[in-house]
Design goal:
- The radius of gyration is 21 Å and the shape is globular.
- It has 18 helices and no strands.
- Helix 2 crosses helix 8 and helix 12 (270-285) runs parallel beside helix 18 (377-405).
- It has helices spanning 2-19, 23-93, 100-104, 108-121, 127-134, 141-145, 148-164, 169-194, 196-212, 221-245, 250-267, 270-285, 289-302, 305-321, 328-342, 351-362, 368-373, 377-405.
């Protein structure tokens, strides 16, 4: 409780500093925010790898397989629900077309940046190329590139291999070494969390300065209402219903996981928040460490509720501006596409935006509309990342509840 109050106080202080509009102060806050984001991203990669390897090695591939199956099931159910909620809201609220001059007036620099990003993203356009990009051809490259899917593949293979090795002194040394590295990593994470109020001040000041500079645009209010409304419904209604169905108290779970949710809100990166999410799940919510250290890294990679809703709603909005008729069939097709696209999307800031831009470029939709959305994406990214981490927490709690009842540990 004290930590939460401290973080909220840091949020208020940062908001006030951002509203002052002092240029040098804004630059300092941007620098501090970038430092914290980079530090958490630095710790996120080894956290994922060590967590998966040590968990597989600890209780074997059989138990891991069952837990992974449940994790995947809950992930797909919650992600599909998020996309459906977004589709329903889009039909009900029915955002209109933007004025032609609004699209034509998009800053040329913004469009050139989008085009550059789009060209980069279109280098891998086929499913076979995407699958090949996940399969590593050397053990160092995935670490250098931060390729989470490749790292997970390596971690699965190494973890399963360790679990299948006969008991020996060599195996014990390897596992003890991995667990020792994990303990060291969590010590570094605790130190970083201890200094986090400074980072929250910077994140809050950064956001406050953007809003006071006119980031939020009124011309696409209905679009924003659909996106944020879908996130709110998923956050406060849909996910709690999943918890209630398993006999869990949503208020209790959210209260315990609030530090991780707030961290996600500020960093806009579920991957960077992962160390906090795992620490909070184990020490505050009481999730079994084997479940938390296995489920949460996987969820960070594949469980993207907010991203699915954003891809769907934004794709429909952009296609509508290009004159594509939004029939029921089209909406259902894009619900499926949004869910598939969200699974495995990088849990980094603006990951969903770049992915949506790639999809729209691929079908020839007017990506200039995304230039209008870009200034307000900071707000959207914050909310959907918080929802993603909340969903990760719910999936972990659901899996923990189910398997602890069966006493598999």
């Amino acid at each position: 409780m004290k930590k939460t109050l401290l973080w909220i106080g840091a949020l208020v202080v940062g908001a006030i500093l951002g509203l002052l509009g002092i240029s040098w102060l804004n630059e300092v806050m941007n620098f501090v925010a970038t430092v914290y984001t980079r530090l958490f991203q630095l710790l996120a990669v080894p956290t994922i790898v060590l967590a998966v390897i040590s968990t597989f090695a600890s209780f074997g591939s059989k138990g891991s397989g069952r837990i992974f199956g449940r994790t995947l099931t809950y992930t797909l159910l919650t992600t599909f629900a998020a996309a459906v909620v977004g589709a329903i809201l889009y039909v009900l609220i029915a955002p209109g077309n933007l004025p032609v001059e609004s699209v034509a007036g998009v800053d040329l620099k913004t469009l050139s940046q989008e085009a550059e990003i789009s060209n980069h993203l279109q280098t891998s356009v086929t499913y076979s190329e995407h699958i090949l990009s996940v399969i590593p051809n050397n053990i160092v490259k995935p670490f250098l590139e931060g390729n989470v899917l490749s790292l997970l593949l390596l971690a699965f293979a190494i973890g399963i291999g360790l679990s299948k090795l006969p008991e020996s002194e060599n195996k014990a040394v390897v596992i003890k070494g991995l667990l020792g590295l994990q303990e060291l990593l969590f010590l570094l994470i605790h130190w970083l969390i201890w200094t986090l109020p400074l980072g929250i001040v910077a994140f809050s000041a950064q956001l406050s300065a953007q809003v006071s500079a006119g980031v939020v645009a009124d011309s696409i209010g209905k679009y924003v209402l659909v996106v944020l409304g879908g996130n709110v419904i998923q956050f406060f209604i849909v996910l709690p219903l999943f918890l209630l169905a398993r006999g869990l108290n949503p208020v209790h779970v959210l209260g315990r996981m609030m530090p991780a949710v707030l961290m996600a809100l500020f960093t806009k990166s579920s991957a960077a928040t992962l160390p906090v999410t795992m620490d909070t799940a184990e020490n505050r919510l009481g999730i079994h460490k084997n479940v938390a250290r296995f489920v949460l890294p996987i969820c960070t990679t594949i469980n993207m509720n907010g991203c699915a809703a954003f891809i769907l709603v934004t794709s429909l909005f952009v296609m509508q501006q290009g004159g594509t008729p939004l029939t029921i069939g089209t909406i259902l097709l894009w619900i499926l596409i949004s869910v598939i696209s969200a699974v495995g999307n990088a849990g980094v800031p603006m990951g969903c935006y770049f992915l949506t831009l790639s999809l729209m470029s691929g079908i020839g939709a007017p990506i200039a509309v995304l230039g209008i959305i870009l200034p307000i994406y900071t707000i959207i990214d914050m909310v959907e990342t918080a929802e993603n981490v909340w969903s990760d927490s719910c999936v972990a709690a659901l899996v923990d509840r189910q398997f602890l009842v069966k006493h598999i540990f």
